Each structure stands twice: as structure tokens, then as C-alpha cells.
Amino acid sequence: MPDLLIKVDQQYIVNKYKFDLQLESKNWESLYHELKQFEVFDERYFKIRNKTMGLMEKYIRRNPGEFILP
Questions:
Q1: Which tens digits make up the pLDDT trace of 19-33?
Q2: Is the dihedral of CA 40, 1, 6, 46 positive or negative?
Q3: CA distance linking residue 50 with residue 58, whole number of Å
Q4: How far apart are CA 13 and CA 6, in angstroms?
Q5: 53: left (phi over 0), alpha (psi -120 to 50) or beta
Q6: Less Cβ crowding at N or C end of the chain, within 10 Å?
Q7: 45 confidence band (pLDDT: 50, 70, 90)
Q8: How many other C-beta atoms lie within 10 A of the C-beta of residue 44?
């Protein structure tokens, strides 16, 4: 996940002025169409996130005493 976050941050920095312009105009639609790379990042994030959440759920189910207060 750190690798993905670094790539997202790099793309954000390169395109920051576009985000700033959209923030002022409050019209985000054109940005969604223009910056398709962020869709790829989203897909990768959710794949990683789902795996991570699954592992966390498995751990919690095996170790409920660490999460339940007496």
C-alpha cells in the first residue's frame, strides 16, 4: 500500500493546480474525465483494502479477547 500512496501523491502534486482550480469552481466533473489515472489507483486501492480488511476480520474472529472489554 505505501507504494500506491506514493504514486497517488506524485500524481496529485503534478496535477495540484487542476485540483485547486476545481476547488474554486466547485465543478469536479471535468476533473473526473481528465484524470483517469486516479481511477486505476482507486481500483488498486480497493483490491488491497479488501484483502487487508479480510485479514483483519480473520484476526479479530480468532482473537476476540483483544477487542472486547471485560
A1: 888 888 877 788 888
A2: positive
A3: 12
A4: 11
A5: alpha
A6: C
A7: very high
A8: 15
Angle at 39 between CA 33 and CA 21, to 5 degrees: 45
Distance (Å, whole) CA 52 – CA 37:
23
Compute the residue count for the chain: 70
Report, in angstroms and rounded to the nearest whole number, the Rg of the chain calculated over CA atoms.
18
C-alpha cell belonging to residue 44: 488498486
Percent of the chain that is helix, strand, coil (3-state, to 5): 85, 0, 15
Our measurement of the distance from residue 54's CA atom to the centroid of its chain's CA atoms, rounded to an integer in Å, reads 17
- Angle at Cα 15 formed by Cα 46 and Cα 42, nearest 5°? 5
Q: Pick from 60, 46, 57: which is nearest to 1 by CA?
A: 46
The half-sphere exposure of 1 on its side-chain side, counting CA atoms within 13 A, is: 9
